[in-house]
Structure formats: C-alpha cells, structure tokens
Amino acid sequence: MTSEQSRFLLVVEDSDEDFETVLDAARRTGLKHEIRRAATGDDFLRLLGDWECGRLPKPALVLLDLNTPGTDGRDALRIIRQNERLRTLPLVILSTSANPRDVEFCYAAGANAYHTKPVDYPAHLQMLHEIFDYWLHRVTLPPSSR
Amino acid sequence: MTTPSIEPPPPWAGGAYSIKRHGVSLTNCDSEPVQMPGCIQAHGALLVLRMSDLVILQVSENARAFLGAAPEALLGKSIGDVVSADGARRLRDFLGTEPIDRNPIYVFTQPIADAAVPLDFFVHTIEGVVLLECEPASRDTPDYYALVKKSVARMQAAPTVAEFCRAATAEIRGLTGLDRVMVYRFHADFHGEVVGESKRDDLEPWLGFHYPAEDIPQPAREIFKKIWGRPLPNAAGPLVEMVPLTHPDTGRPVTMTHCALRGASAMYTEYLQNMGVAASLTLSILCDGELWGLIACHHLTPTHFPYQVRAACEFMAQVVSLQLRGAEQREALAYRLRMEEIHNRLIAQAALDAGLSSLTTASPNLLAAMDAKGAAVFHSDRWWRVGETPADGQLDELKDWLAQRPEFRSATRPAYVTDALARDFPGGAALAEVASGVLAVPLSRRNGNVVLWFRPETFQTVKWAGDPTAKPMVPGPHGSRLTPRKSFELFTESVRQRSLPWEPVEIEAALRLRLLILELVVSRNEQLTEMNADLTRSNEELDAFAYVASHDLKEPLRGISKYAHLLLEDAAMAEGVNRQRVDGLMRLTRRMDSQLDSLLHFSRVGRATLQFQSVDLNEVLAEALEIVAARRQEIPTEITIPRSLPTVTCDRMRAREIFMNLLANALKYNDKPRREIEIGCMPVEGEKAPAAGASPVLYVRDNGIGIEPRHFDLVFKMFKRLHGRDEFGGGSGAGLSIVQKLVEQHRGSVWVESAPGAGSTFYFTLTADRSENP
Nearest CA to B280 among B293, B291, B270, B290? Predict the structure, then answer.
C-alpha cells in the first residue's frame, strides 16, 4: 500500500444488513479505509459526480450490488464505463444472482470481478475479507490522483 | 365433316337449287341451302310479287289446285286478277301500314275461283319482293286466346325448369292434340337433351334422351334463331317447285326462311320417317338472343296445322322463351339457397368441432349441397373423401398439379372448373370415369389445402337416342347416309371424358364456401395467436417471479443468517436451549437458501434453448460420475455399466445433468452395507426389439431404500421429499423435478420402478430425434 493510494471505499448497497456486514468485515480485518455508502444507484451516480467536481476523493474500489432501487446496478455500471474518467475505476460486483447471463453482462460491461453473495454469514464475511485482501493489498490499482 | 377443298362441287352448281331435283343426292347437310330450297310443301301455294306493282313474278307449280289457274297463266298478271281488286287494295294497304318485313302476317280469308274452301292469305316481304302464302282456311276453330291465357297461367306456377318444361309440353299438346310434344335443350356443344315431354300414353318416353349436335345442324339452328315456328304437316308429302325457279329479273332464288310452306330438307324428312314421325311442328326457344332449345311436336300421322293453331303455338314459344329465364333464375336461387344453407350448417359444425372433418363426415355433407357424385377435402395433412372420388394417391397428384394452375392463383376467384379434366390434366384419362368434371377451390397455398367436387363421365350417365345396341335403325330410303345410328357413332367419340358442365351458381357456391372456411380458419388463428400471446406473457411473468423469488428472497435470508450468527457470538446465547434454537434458525436459512437455488435452477432449465447434437452417452455418464465422485468416496458404492451406452441426439449438458441427479439420488438413498448402482440401456439381448425409430430406454438402478408405489408420482413433484429433512443427507427435493423437466424438453419420458427395501430403477428416454422418425 502506498501513500498515493486512496483510503476511500465506495459501497453501493441498498440492504442495511448487507452494508453492515461490509462494515463488520472491514472492522474484523482491520481495514483503515473510509467507507462511504450509496443506498441507491442514483446516490451512487451523485457521489461520483461529487468526486468529479473535487468535493470527494476518488474511491480506491467500488463494491456494486446489482439489484439496487432506482437506477439499477447494471445501468450504473454501463454509465460508469461510458464515462472516460470513470472507466478505470476498479469495480467489483456483489450480487445475489448466479445467473450466467448476469455474470456475462457485467464482465462485458467492464466489471473487474463478479462475486455471488452467500446467504451464510461466516461465508459472506470470508468473501468480503478476501475481496479486501486482494483488491486493496495485493493488486496494483490505477493512480488515484486526477 | 369434310373440308371444302376435297368436297365435290354441289350438283346445282351453276344453276338454282331445288330439293326436288337435288335434295336426295346430298352428302353434306351443312352445305344445303335450306333457306332457299326452291320448293314448298304441297298443302298450300306461294306467290312471289314485285313490291312496286304487285305483279306475279313466281308461283308454285301447284297453282291450279289452289288458285284455279296454271302458273303460266298467272305469271306477269297483277295480284288483283287472283284475289280481286278489293283484295289487291287491302293487300296494298297492309303493305303500307304493317311491319311485315321478314314477319308473315295473316291478311284475309278469301274464296278463290270456284274452290270449295276459302283460302287464308299470309304476307311478308323479304329482299325486295312480296311473298304471299295461301292455304285452305280451317273451320270451327276454338277460342285459342282463352286457351293460351289459361296455359300461360299454369306454366307460371312451375317452380323448376324441369317442371316448367313439362308444363309447357302438356299445354302445347293440349292446344294441338299432337301425339308427342318435347322440350329439347341445347347443351354448350349443341348436343340436345329432352328435358320435358308430354306424349300419347302408348308411346315410348324419350325424356332424358340425348341427341348428337349433328341431328340439328348449324344451318337449321340459324333458321330457328329467326323464326318462331316451323310447320311440317306431312313430312312424306310431295314437294312443289317454284315456277320459274328464280326471280325472272335478278335470277336469285327466293329466300323462304320465314315461309310456313317452306319445303323441308330431304335429310330432315328422312330423319323424321326413321323415327316413325309423319308430321312435325318445331318451335324455337330463344333466351337472350341465343337458341336455348326447341319445342318439338310430333304426330304419327299426317295432319294439318291451321293458322290459328300455329299462331297460338308460336305465342306459347315466345312465352316459354320469356319465362324460361325466370324459371332458371328461380331454380338457381332455390339451388343456391339450399347449397348455402347446408354450407352454413357445415361451417357452424366445423367451428364447434374445431376441425373441417364435418365437411365430409357430417350428414348432410358437401355432397348433399352440390349436385356432384363425389367430394374430397385435403386438410390436416390428409384426404377426407365422400362419394365417388379418385384414390388418395391420384388426389395427391391432382392437388400438386392444381397448385400450379393459374386459376388457383387468382386473387378474387380462385377456382379450377372443368367438365373435361383429361384435356388439361395429364393423368386425367385414368380418372375420367369418376372425375371428368372437377370443381376445385384452394383453401391455403402453403399447406395445399383444397376442396374438390367430382362429376363422372357423361357418357356413362346419358340415355342415348338411337343407341345401336338397343334398337338398330333401319336405313332410310336413300341408304344409311344420315341416321341416328351413324350420328351416334360420331358423337360418342366427341363426348368421351366429359361430364355435365358446372353451373355458375355452383361455382359461386364453391367460392362462397371457400370464404367461409377461410374466415373460420382466420378467426381460429386469431384465437391461437391470442392464446400464444397469453402463454408467452404468463411464461415471462413466471420467469420474473422465479427471479424475484430466488434473488430478492435471498437478501432477507442473508440478514437472518447474519443475526443468527451474531446471536451465537453473544456469550449469553451460547448455552442450552437458546443455542439449539439459534442453530435451528441457521439450519432453516441454509435449507431455504438451497431451495431458492433449486427454484432458480429449475426456472433457468425451462428458459434456455436446447442445443441438439449427436452425443455419446458413455462420455456424458463418465463426466457425471466424475462430478458425483466426492460423494462416492464418502460412501463407497460399486458402479456397474453392463454394456456401453448408445449415441443419441440430445442436449449434452442436460443429459449430463439428468445422470448427475439420478446418480446423486442413487448414492444418497441407500442404507445397505454393500451399495450398488447399475447404469444401462434397454432392451437387453433376448428381449423384444423396439419399434423402428424408437428411442432407447436408459436406466439408473440402485439397491437402495426403494419407494412405495403410491409415491411414484410424488417423487417428481417440486420440493417433495419422502424423508425427514436431514435424513439421507438432506436435499431440496428438486432433483427429480429437474430431471423430469429436462426429459420433457427432449420430448422423452421418465418413470420409476421400485419396491420398498428392494432398490429403485429410474428409466428415461431422450427422443430428440423423434422429428426425424415420426
């Protein structure tokens, strides 16, 4: 982890329980990042707009739930990848759906990874732990400065 | 007949024609100048007068018998010398006022010279001369006007053409007292048929007899278009020649077309004699300027046709001509209504049946409506026949040929109509007996659906006049050059492979039936389209529901799982009964999670399209065994495959999933110390071979716990389990439902044979290649 990297994590999640599970996982793994939540797809797009205007730091990683109210996760994904500045934003899909069509769509639209959320709580925590470990510690992400 | 180039010049070439001199030497009736015969019948006299001064130019050679002076004494004289000055004045007045050109009108009755009987005089003009005919006046004639009036009233009541014709013959016979009166109708080829008859009781009926066209040749038919009546009171009587034979100034023969006394062709008088007829009166029936037919009156002995009788009969002929069209239209209307009524009933029945089979199987059916001997309908990929029709194979050929006919492609009136199929259709000669006449309307071009009506060859249904096998004709006095027998032979040649023609009203009814059927089919298609749309909609809704159920329900479930775990992490909950309850909560979430997964999978199985290919089931089975290998290691099980599996056309992934599910169950539901699974294909040698094209039956057999027969259906139901939740390793209870769905997608079937404790055998078929071997 270098000082240049963002310490800001954006989670798009309409379920309170699932968002808290993300917080639980971050706490249990000692993640230092600030975690911001967008409860709907529209909130998410608004936050991205704030970042573009400089009111918010660029997120190191976005966790995107596919089935969000309002602007659907799929639409949000498409909008982000069509925007030149947002194209390199590391984006990990978290979905209840294991439908091959959803998986195919997300990768085709430019998602960086696709995970199916387990119902079992420990498995859910474990999955989030692995995501944090991989995306925030092991891989090299694009530079956060604009 | 013969062509002009090889015809010898007529015997009268270079001079005037006279029946008396040349008539018997004729060989060709079509060349005889029947309108200028040069002779008249002997029962009256004819004077030809110059129009300007009424001077006698020609006179019949029997002048002395009627006019009291020899022809030589009369020629060049004024007509006043014959009929008196008063008569000449009345005649001149008549010429000036009456429409007598080509229209003989009665002028007066006058006693001439010292004759015992006064003469009736008739006059008309033609080609610049005046023709004055006279014959002995008849006495004590009844009131023909009153008689005819009653006759007309009775004829008008006839509902059909046949009854109308019969009524007309009865009335005319009543008026004339002749032995036989017939209505003789011309068909399109001018052959005639007796369609009405009234006769002396002792005579043979001729009703229904057909006569060749040559019996009334073209020149005679032309005359009948111009006159209403043709009297021949003594067919065998003598002929008298005109003196001189031609006009003294122009040299032209007299045109006698309209003369009642006109001499008859020897051909015709001979023909009548052959039939035993001594006197005839022939009346024309004209419809719309065409010669529809004739009223032929025969008498077996020579007779007289007094002027009043002829006038009454000619009036009757005009009435018949005028009313016949009306009678035909009434009959056509009644026929049309009958056809439409039956067709409507058939369509109503077809709508109820949701099929067209009632057209041929119902009573009444297509054949009851139309005057035909057979009918066939092609629909639902097969023939439906009623009555006398060609065989299926012949109909197939006819149908394929019809599809190429331009008539069938007409946008407005697609119908093929013929009374001589053999002329058009190459295979028509073989069908002539039952299908010389064909009326066909297409129902759809794409499926080749068609309705056909058939009529047999006319030859087989017609009673021929002068049938040689029934009664050989005696040759006439001049040999057998023209007898019904000879003309019969000519005629049968020309009507082979012909049927009675189709009436316009029948063609209209066929086209109307076609429209009714199309409307029915269209409305049925609309219903189907609507139902399909409904089905698609409900399938989509079901998919959406399955999606919601399997995804959105997982979200709260994940929350429940989370809180259960958090509770367990709480030290106070980690003990005793509460601990058990929270464990139960977590077990339930896992179970529900697994059920939602199955539901999702089940709905996905239904949605994705199958990829059919040739699949070696041995490979598929090997893959399935590999996937379930983990469980096999858990519980050691012996797998046997007695013989190798076949290669079939199916979806590879789905076939593997079927084996996986069946193997998983076979592994799971077993409590025996020695566990066995056998996978195979039926039939085994020595058993009955399957029917050609039948799909092989595959099976997965275990020696496990078995199933009670009453549960055989239950095991295929979604989420139905026969055992406790966690017995035999738990499970969602969806495996066999998914197997059933996968098999059904292949149009195969799956079933089970089992007994509790004795193991189970699951059989299934994958008949994806069914379409190739229906």
Answer: B270
Half-sphere exposure (Cβ direction) of B490: Cα atoms closer than 13 Å: 14
Tokens of B357: 């089979």
Residue percentage of chain B with pLDDT more than 70: 86
One DSSP character per residue, B647-714 reads EEEEEHHHHHHHHHHHHHHHHHS---SSEEEEEEEEPPTTSPPPPTTPPPEEEEEE-SS---GGGTTG
B565 CA to chain A: closest CA distance, Å? 7
Strand residue runs (E) in B449-596: 449-455, 463-464
Nearest to B555 among A96, A98, A122 (CB): A96
- Beta strands per DSSP E along B166-316: 180-186, 192-199, 209-211, 229-232, 239-243, 279-287, 290-299
Q: Which of the residues A17, A74, A93, A119 would you substitute to probe the B interface, choosing the one with the greatest number of B C-beta atoms within 10 Å?
A: A119
A119 touching chain B per CB within 8 A? yes
**What is the pTM assigned to this prediction?**
0.55
Which pair of tokens denotes residue B385?
């026949």
A49: contact with B, CB 8 A cutoff? no
How confident is the model over B440-479, as pLDDT tens digits?
999 877 778 899 999 998 765 556 565 444 433 444 444 4
**Contact at CB, B555 and A118, closer than 8 angstroms:** no
pLDDT digits (tens, 9 = 90+) for B407-416: 888 888 899 9
Residue numbers in B near A96 (CB within 8 A):
551-552, 554-555, 558
Mutate to test the interface with A, among B547, B548, B551 (most CBs of A within 10 A): B551
pLDDT surpasses 90 at B399? yes
| Confidence tier at B492 by pLDDT (50, 70, 90) | low
Distance from CA of A42 to the nearest CA of B (A): 20
Q: pLDDT tens across A50-72, in order?
A: 887 878 888 889 999 887 666 67
In sequence order, the β-bridge partners of residue A114 are: A93
Q: Using 50, 70 and 90 to split pLDDT, how confident is the model at B24? A: low
Question: In chain B, which residues have their Cβ closer than 8 Å to the Cβ of A99?
Answer: 547, 600, 604
Instruction: Determine which helix (DSSP H) or strand (DSSP E) holds A65, and give its type and residue range.
Output: strand A61-65
Sign of dihedral through CA atoms B175, B176, B178, B180?
negative
Q: What is the mean pLDDT of residues B170-186?
A: 93
Q: Which residue in the set B551, B564, B590 is minimally distant from A97, CB to CB?
A: B551
Q: Tokens in use for A111?
A: 């998602």
CA within 13 Å, CB half, B733: 16
| Burial class, B132, CB count within 10 angstroms (exposed 0-12 / middle 13-18 / buried 19+) | buried
Q: Which residue of A has its CA nearest to B569?
A: A122
Average pLDDT, chain B: 83
* Residue B443 contacts residue B379 (beta carbons within 8 Å): yes
Residue with tokens 């909560």: B585
Measured distance CA(B433)–CA(B390) in Å, rounded: 9
pLDDT of residue B762: 94
Q: Tell me how far apart the alpha carbons of residues B610 and B746 are, in angstroms, rounded to a whole number.
A: 8
Q: Which residues pair with B615 in a beta bridge?
A: B648
The interface predicted TM-score (ipTM) is 0.79
Q: For B611-649, b where at least 16 C-beta lie within 10 A, e where not — what string?
A: ebeebebeebbeebbeebeeebeeeebebeeeeebeebb
A116 at B interface, C-beta within 8 A: no
3-state secondary structure of B757: coil
Distance, in angstroms, between B554 CA and closest chain A CA?
A: 7
Residues 6+ apart with CB under 8 A from A101: none
d(CA B748, CA B766): 5
Contact (CB<8Å) A121/B566: yes
Contact criterion met (CB below 8 Å) for B704 and B670 = yes
Question: What is the end-to-end Cα distance of chain A in Å, rounded?
Answer: 18
